[in-house]
Every structure is written in structure tokens, then in C-alpha cells.
Amino acid sequence: MLVGVFSGLFIEAFELFISQPLLARWLGKMPDLSSFSAVHQNLKVTLIYLLLIWILAAFGEEMVYRGYLMNRLAGLFRGTRAAWATSLVLIAIVFGCSHTGQGATGMLENIWDGLLLGGLYLACGRNLTAAIIAHGVTDTVDLLLMYLGKYPGMS
């Protein structure tokens, strides 16, 4: 459990202080998180989103992308190391592309996040617990920053 918490905090710090500023500079825009604008200083909406984050994003996305798709793709190639590495990269790309609503910056950020979460899943012996917790922690920090009006690029 602590591995998931610390991994989530690391992923979030990397995103906020390194990858997002670099991507925003290169692509000329921040990720489009306008669909979360209702969260700002609205505790009721924030709590609803928090519940949805943990159920749909942390648990749901990890079950689908890491728990199911990575395993199926690696299994197609007999589960070799190369199969798992290929699966990690391809599923991270699919994960990133599933976030098209966040624009190019958001998609690329999520590809990177998918690589880190998939790597965590593999490093933990293909146990989803740490990846689920890490995903939930990153999204929770993002949501709390949005609630407080402190998320970069959002007012």
C-alpha cells in the first residue's frame, strides 16, 4: 500500500514539475481540463468526483488497461519479457489516447503515466494494488489542486 502512495506522489510530482511544464512549452498549451472546472471551490462536486476517481479511474482503468489489456497482449506473444515490454508500451499509448479530451498535452502526459503505472504493475509482480493506489493518489492530488484553484493553468 505504501508503495502505491509513494509511487503516486512521485508520479504526480514528476507530472506537475517536469513533464507538464516541458510538454506545455513544446506544444504551446496546457492539458485541457475544462471538464473539471465545476470542482473549483465546490466541495459537493469535488467529493462526487473524488468517489468517481477512485471507482472509475483508479480501480476501473487499472483493471482494464493493466489488469486485462496488458495481460491479453503479452499473452498473445507467449508472455516473454519482450511481450511484456511491448504490451507495456502499446497499452500506455492506448491509455494516453483514451484521454483525447485533454488535448495533445494531456494525451502525452497520460502515455507517460501509463508507462509508469504499467511499470509499477510489473515491478510488483503483476499485482494491481500498488498501481490502483498510485493512480488514485495522482488523481486525488490533481482534484484537490483544482478544488483549491492551484492546479497549473486552471483558474
- The general outline is globular
Which ranges are low-confidence, i.e. pLDDT below 50, for 5 or more consecutive residues?
none
**Separate helix tally:** 5
Strand content: under 5%
- The number of domains: 1
Residue share in helix: over 70%
Query: From the alpha-carbon coordinates, what is the Rg to the nearest angstrom?
Result: 15 Å
The main pleated sheet reads as: none
Helix-strand sequence? HHHHH
Structural class: mainly alpha
Mean pLDDT: 96
Q: Report the end-to-end length measured between terminal Cα atoms.
A: 33 Å
Structure summary, number of beta strands: 0
Question: What would the keywords be for this entry?
Answer:
155 residues, mainly alpha, 76% helix, globular
Task: Give the helix/strand layout.
Layout: H1 2-27, H2 43-76, H3 81-97, H4 103-123, H5 129-148
Helix pairs in contact: 1-4, 1-5, 2-3, 2-5, 3-4, 4-5
Give the gist of this structure.
By secondary structure, the chain is mostly helical. It contains 5 helices and no strands.
Explain this structure to me?
The chain is an all-alpha fold and 155 residues long. It has one domain. It has helices spanning 2-27, 43-76, 81-97, 103-123, 129-148. It is globular and about 50 Å long. The mean pLDDT is 96.
